[in-house]
Amino acid sequence: TDARKSILVDELKARLAALPGVVNVANGHAPDDPDLREAAVSVNGQQPDRINRKAYLFYKWIQPNYFRTLSIPLLAGRTLTAGAAEDAVVSQSAAKELWPGESPVGKTLRLGTDGQYHEKDEPLPDGSIWRVIGVVHDTRGVTLDGSDSEEIYLPMPAEAASRYPILIRGTGDAASLMREMDPVLAAVDPNLGAHLLTLEQMLRTTEPFVASSMAATIASITGLLGLLLVTVGIYGTVSYIVVQRTREVGIRMALGARRGNVLLLILRESAQPVVSGLGIGLVLAAGVAWLLRHILYGVPIFDAVSFVGVSLLLLSAALLAAFFPSRRATRVDPMVALRYE
User: Fold this and answer.
1) How far apart are CA 249 and CA 231, in angstroms?
2) CA-to-CA distance for 113 and 41, rounded, in angstroms?
């Protein structure tokens, strides 16, 4: 029964909160939870419909210590408190969407889920006028375009807590903490089934992340093949050009040029077009990375390892391609080099 579920959840949370290393415990959707709920939003006091809706945003039922548990910073106003049934907190992006250039604290909104998916007996936010009391920092969720950062947080009804995951923030190793939870679960109810996941593990099981991981794998293989072809191409082209300059090397050596100076000259001239190409390529790559910024997980837009690493690889290929033929040419007798065709 619902009453039994509520008692079970409360007991579980109390025992989990007493574990060493546990900092906060709360019920609510995790940022990586793919089970999103969306509602039409109006800010004029009327029930949102096709005419007066301001936007479609995601909403979450949470408990007052939800933001502390997930370390989501408060930017303005205050967070939810127990017993405040009609207060709401919005994310930074949601505030900009609903009240651009204004402070949302003190404003009101209404939500409508008509036509939106929800489960049987699931609590719905329709009907109430919600008063915004605070703004929190955006969180990165599972949608590739980042649209789920526009969120409205609502106080969870007490009887609904058993419908949502128990979120636990701890210190130290997550795996060790999860092992300590097993006897607690068994003590509360031996027949209780629990699914323990870190937020990172939860994110990696979502459909958008799996799809993007597959796409990233394919793109990585394609990119490595392309990088291999480019490296071989640069090496072959530069090496061929340097071999064609063997007669020039012989003339320079016959006129008294030092071997080291000739070698440096060819290396410098061989590297110039490669450096110019890398400069143009880095600018284009930075532009593409900026366009793809919404689908990057755990990678900065301007990843220094990728940019610098690829540049050094291609430059090294050009220098090596120029070095070995140049060194051979400088060791050839000048008279032999002068007859070289």
Assistant:
1) 26
2) 9
Determine the straight-line distance between the first and last CA of the chain, rounded to whole angstroms. 93
Residue 183 sits at the vertex; the CA angle it makes with 178 and 188, to the nearest 5 degrees, is 115
State the DSSP H helix or E strand holding residue 7, giving kind and residue range, or none if neither. helix 2-17
Residue 3's pLDDT band (cuts 50, 70, 90): confident
Looking at the chain, which runs of residues are DSSP E strands?
22-27, 38-42, 55-62, 74-77, 87-91, 108-112, 129-136, 151-155, 166-170
Higher pLDDT, 34 or 12: 12
Whole-angstrom distance, CA of residue 67 vs CA of residue 70: 5
In sign, the C-alpha dihedral spanning 6, 11, 16, 17 is positive
Beta bridge mates, 40: 56, 112
The structure tokens listed for 71 are: 């370390």
Judge whether residue 264 has pLDDT over 90.
no
Give the Cα separation of 38 and 135 in Å (integer).
19
Interatomic CA distance for residues 248 and 62, integer angstroms: 77
CA pair distance 184, 9, nearest whole angstrom = 12
Measure Cα distances from 248 to 40, 91, 318 in Å: 75, 68, 20
The more confidently predicted of residues 253 and 77 is: 77
- The percent of residues in the chain predicted with pLDDT above 70, rounded, is 94
